Amino acid sequence: MKIIYEVKVEKEFGDAIDALKKSLSEHNFGVLWELNFKDKLKEKGLDFDTNFKVFEVCNPKQAKEVLESHIEVGYFLPCKMVIYEKNNSVYVGMLRPTDLIGMFNDDSLVSIAKEVEKELKAAIDAI
Question: pLDDT tier at 69 (50, 70, 90 boundaries)?
Fold first, then answer.
């Protein structure tokens, strides 16, 4: 089981961020929150020279559906995505919703997790 889905993109870090936000919107997901670890750690007086940004994203309709079915899934919401640089390349990835939902052993949640994962993978692949 590989709990992450990740792709290397042929974009600069900032361009990848812009492309991800646009693509997420086109797939009915919004960015609720973002954190730039490089900037945050610098704020705290720590040197961290790698661009690494975390996004929490959500499709409100799907979130409502899954929370109404199994409120504890909220521990996994919103969906987390990252963009980072490594070895002069930029990567975009996410935790796989199907693997996270699988921890609940509730087959009724699997279909929505598959749909969420399909849309988020499509959003990543589009950039």
Answer: confident
Q: Which residue stretches of 1-127 are H helix?
A: 13-26, 37-43, 60-69, 97-102, 110-125
Quick check: 120 and 94 in contact, CB under 8 A?
Answer: yes
Q: What are the structural domain ranges in the chain?
A: 4-125
The listed CATH number (3.50.50.60, 2.60.120.200, 3.30.310.70, 3.40.50.1980) that belongs to domain 4-125? 3.30.310.70
The mean of the pLDDT values for the chain is: 94
pLDDT classification of 1: cutoffs 50, 70, 90: low
pTM > 0.85: yes
